[in-house]
Amino acid sequence: MQVKIIIGTVAFMISMMVLGYAALREPGRLERYTDARQGRQIEMGAHLYDANCATCHGVDGKAEECYDPSSGEPIGCVGLPLNYAPLVCGDLSLRMEAMNWEGSKETFIQSTLTSGRPGTVMPAWAEQFGGPLRPDQIVDLSKFVLNWETEELCSQPLVVYEWQESVEEFNEEFPEGDAARGEELFLSYGCTGCHGNLEDDTSALVGPWLGDITERGAEQIDGYSAADYVYESILESNAFIAPDCPTGPCVGPPGAMPDNFDLRMGENPQDLRDLMTFLLGE
Ligand code: HEC
Ligand code: HEC
User: Fold this and answer.
1) Whole-prediction pTM value?
2) Which protein residues touch ligand 1 with a CB less than 6 Å away?
3) Whose CA is closest to atom 32 on ligand 2?
4) Is residue 140 over pLDDT 80?
5) Which of 195, 196, 200, 251 is surrounded by the fewest CB atoms within 10 Å?
């Protein structure tokens, strides 16, 4: 009897130790399981991104290199950069702030995907809004996009230029423009994707053709020169909505032209000088 109790007690203690050890390891297992699940979601998101988003948001989400899905030819990226510090860095990123979003970053991305941005070319992706994607695919995509929040991207301080009120003051600070570089920027900022190229007045798809903006720009707003007008159109696209778009009257505000070029060009204001030199020849 005595021996049985001792054996029983020892066996109980051993099993408690084994269980205790397993319990101690449990958080690690859970973490590894969660990591693996997250990893799978990000991987699924990457496939969905390549199939649905890269034509507008570009290779690696940088909105610099985009290709026509049928011909493989390079085209202007009409989407915004997503692999981009002002969108993904911090709990409240600069883009969330600019759009008065108060929820989490994940819900910001998911709701943008779910319902799109009405009035812009960013479509609604969720089935419930007539799009092709299921709710779990929206989640996978948001995980993939937010995976771009890396130490490397987010540790550099963001230096954004404070824009001058008027184009005269701006031109004094940046007196020289390079039209050839401006032409490259016109493609890499995605202007071409919406405005076409300056040689062909039928090439614009979303925004007005800009080949005649030197004359037309000076007639749009009383008291504005063409330079005043182009400066404001790029930095504050919603301040004034142009009357005629290729598909009919332009909509807005907010219009289809992205409203964050002030932020994007704020990292290198010479870009705007070069673009304006290309557009206006001065
Ligand atoms: C037809 C082109 C196009 C496609 C395809 C497209 N987008 Fe967009 N997307 C845009 C444009 C244009 C905007 C900016 C809209 C605006 O001005 O607010 C945008 C905005 C966004 C934003 C918000 C960015 C910000 O800074 O506010 C996210 C996130 C986004 N898209 C993700 C995606 C994902 C993920 C896909 C693929 C499922 C996708 N987009 C497909 C054109 C596109
Ligand atoms: C996603 C499409 C899109 C992209 C990308 C885009 N625009 Fe626009 N843009 C428009 C639309 C639509 C309008 C007309 C509505 C408005 O005034 O906001 C417009 C208006 C303009 C105007 C005023 C045109 C006029 O006829 O009055 C200028 C100038 C302009 N954009 C320059 C640019 C430049 C430069 C870039 C690139 C840095 C650019 N846009 C990128 C869609 C776009």
Assistant:
1) 0.77
2) 52-53, 55-57, 78-80, 82, 87, 95, 109, 112-113, 117, 120-122, 125, 141, 145, 258
3) 234
4) yes
5) 200
